[in-house]
Design a protein that fits this description.
49 residues; mainly alpha; rod-shaped
């Protein structure tokens, strides 16, 4: 995941980098919110390795 972002940054495609980061943040937040609504107070953050 990080390698892909760095490759985009080197190609000066900044909007794509921002879009990728925003989609990852949105995915993590939606996961945390859904777990919270299911009364699971510990939100697991997915690891992208």
């Amino acid at each position: 995941m990080k390698e892909g972002l760095l490759r985009f940054a080197r190609n000066d495609n900044v909007p794509y980098v921002i879009k990728d980061i925003a989609s990852v943040i949105a995915r993590v937040l939606s996961e945390a919110i859904s777990r919270f609504h299911n009364e699971e107070l510990v939100a697991a953050v997915p690891r992208y390795e």
